[in-house]
Specification:
Shape: globular
Strand content: 5-15%
CATH architecture of the largest domain: Orthogonal Bundle
Order of helices and strands: HHHEHHEEHH
Oligomer: single chain
CATH topology of the largest domain: Arc Repressor Mutant, subunit A
Strand order of the largest sheet: 1-3-2
Mean pLDDT: 86
Largest sheet: 3 strands, antiparallel
CATH class of the largest domain: Mainly Alpha
Number of helices: 7
Length: 167
């Protein structure tokens, strides 16, 4: 393990070291970044087992939670261009994961929706992912889990607030 990584781990375990608050903040940022990378790797592993890309899995999750939606909204949800979403949906449609349907309210609009196979495949991958997360979180007591969730939600809310306020 590298010296820098050892120092970060020591800092996270509460081991005292001579550092100022900016170094402690950097340790927190590194820890969050490391956790995000490891969680993403875990997600990729489970989606690959179902022959999905991470982006395809994201589409399935968005449609499962939000229902059928138009391509322009889907591109906003995915933070990508309409052209990328079109090619992504084309590939997913060929695999039988999603289908395009005419919007009943306006026949000029096309909505993307999950197929039963798409829903089943996503739910299988999501269950395995949840099982991994639950096993991982067993290192915490129930009280520690609640506190961790509270702190992460507080950080998320503050970051969201700043994102909408700052230019």
């Amino acid at each position: 393990m590298s010296s820098e990584r050892t120092q970060r781990k020591a800092a996270l375990n509460g081991t005292p070291r001579a550092s100022d608050s900016s170094e402690r903040l950097q340790d927190l940022v590194y820890a969050i970044s490391d956790i995000q990378r490891l969680v993403t790797r875990m997600m990729i592993k489970e989606t690959l087992r179902e022959n999905l890309t991470l982006q395809q899995s994201a589409v399935l999750r968005i449609l499962l939670n939000g229902g059928p939606m138009q391509m322009n909204r889907l591109s906003r949800e995915l933070l990508t261009t309409a052209a990328n979403v079109t090619s992504l949906i084309d590939r997913m449609e060929k695999k039988g994961l999603v289908e395009r349907a005419v919007d009943r309210g306006d026949r000029r609009k096309i909505a993307v929706q999950l197929t039963p196979d798409g829903k089943k495949i996503f739910e299988t991958a999501a269950k395995r992912y949840r099982d991994h997360v639950e096993d991982t979180l067993d290192v915490f007591t129930a009280t520690e889990r609640r506190e961790l969730l509270r702190l992460l939600e507080k950080l998320r809310d503050e970051l969201s607030r700043r994102e909408t306020v700052e230019p």
